[in-house]
Amino acid sequence: MDRLVTAAALPALREDLRLYAAAPNRDGSPAWVIQDPARNRFFRIGWLEFELLSRWDARDPAAISGGVAAATPLDATPDDVQALAEFLQRNQLVRASSPQDVARLTQTRRGRVPGRLAWLAHHYLFFRVPLVHPAAFLARTLPLVRPLMTPAAAIAILVATLVGLLLAARQWDAFTHAFAGSLGPAGLVGYLAALAVAKSLHELGHAYAATRYGVRVGHMGVAFVVLWPMLYTDTGESWKLADRRRRFAIAAAGIATEMALAGIATLGWSLAPDGALRQALFFLATTSWIMTLVVNASPFLRFDGYFLLSDALDFPNLHERSFALARAFVRRNLLALPAPDPEPLPPRLRTFLIAFAFATWLWRLVVFFGIALLVYHFFFKLLGIVLFVLEIWWFIARPVAGELK
């Protein structure tokens, strides 16, 4: 690969970058996170990279690597410095102070600007619309919500949920009858309204948990996935937290909120008399249970379950790294190609990640094909066919074609 930098002139770091201590790596070595505040992106680095960056002002690969080797037990070389410089340049973490730097950034931007078809595909399949900047509101109202974050509140909600499920089981015929009666236009409106309430509380759960741990919620809004609206909360700054248990708590807060809503609504439905209130509680209960267990808890798409599993394993970029392992496995075992694993891992973890990657691919194949069929039937035929083909290509055929290439 062509070098992006030369030994004679290492690029200077941007002055607005921020560095935070992170949780140790799996092997116990220290780690840090670099924040790019301009894009609010985070980059995890290890001990070697930290030591190299600590001496970056020397601007000479031999001097930097020699200083690290002399002061630490790390075996640093000039090639390590060059590799780090390339990483910094690729991710735009260095200063653009010369015409060559400006030309390089211009060329990089041109390479990243998609064609018209790719732009249309991306913005049809997924785009976000930020609506509010709630940080001040969340800080003001956190004291009102904090009592709900205590162990006593969790125990009370758990007891209410168990009682509600027990009472609902004793009225199972009434529950199934209510479900059958909700399958109609009026029921669809009820489910959509319940979904809006449940998802709003879900996202507020993430937002309040982040605020509780000092993480700024930059914005909240609506994300459109294949033109279907979904609320979202920007909690990207949770990567500042060195304690992964707190990151786990923020990721789990939405599911916990929605399950609490489902449990309380189930209890309310079991106790309420027939009428509009009972029907509304039924919509809330069924919508919250189904969305939480089927969608949000799944680790196969980048919803809450994915981030929970990633934090539980302490394995950032879970999808990308597991997919790389699975591709290497396929190349070795099906094509007999010399494809080593992209990173050394314990055997049990490696086996789990490969199996997880295959399960994710199968799940996505089923989900994306189902969404494509829904899109085909939802729009008029010509547009439905175009959107169907576009989605099958983007999500299924394009990744396979790229791997074959």
List keywords for this structure.
405 residues; 3-stranded antiparallel sheet; mainly alpha; globular
The main β sheet shows up as: 3 strands, antiparallel
Radius of gyration: 25 Å
Residues in β-strands, percent: 5-15%
Low-pLDDT residue spans? 1-7
Q: Would you list the SSEs in sequence order as H and E?
A: EEEHHHHHEHHHHEEHHHHHH
Mean pLDDT: 86
Q: What does the oligomeric state look like here? A: single chain
Tally the helices: what do you get?
A: 15
Helix content: 55-70%
Distance between the termini: 19 Å
Name the overall outline: globular
Count of beta strands: 6
Overall SS class:
mainly alpha
Describe this structure in words.
The chain has a three-stranded antiparallel sheet with strand order 1-2-3. A three-stranded antiparallel sheet has the order 4-5-6. It is globular. It has helices at residues 47-54, 61-71, 78-90, 99-112, 116-125, 135-145, 151-170, 172-181, 185-212, 244-271, 276-296, 304-313, 318-334, 347-378, 381-404; strands spanning 18-22, 31-36, 41-46, 126-132, 220-225, 228-233. The two termini are 19 Å apart. Mean pLDDT is 86; it is low at 1-7. By secondary structure, the protein is mainly alpha-helical.
Architecture blueprint of SSEs:
Elements: E1 18-22, E2 31-36, E3 41-46, H1 47-54, H2 61-71, H3 78-90, H4 99-112, H5 116-125, E4 126-132, H6 135-145, H7 151-170, H8 172-181, H9 185-212, E5 220-225, E6 228-233, H10 244-271, H11 276-296, H12 304-313, H13 318-334, H14 347-378, H15 381-404
Helix pairs in contact: 2-3, 6-9, 7-10, 9-10, 9-11, 10-11, 10-12, 13-14, 14-15
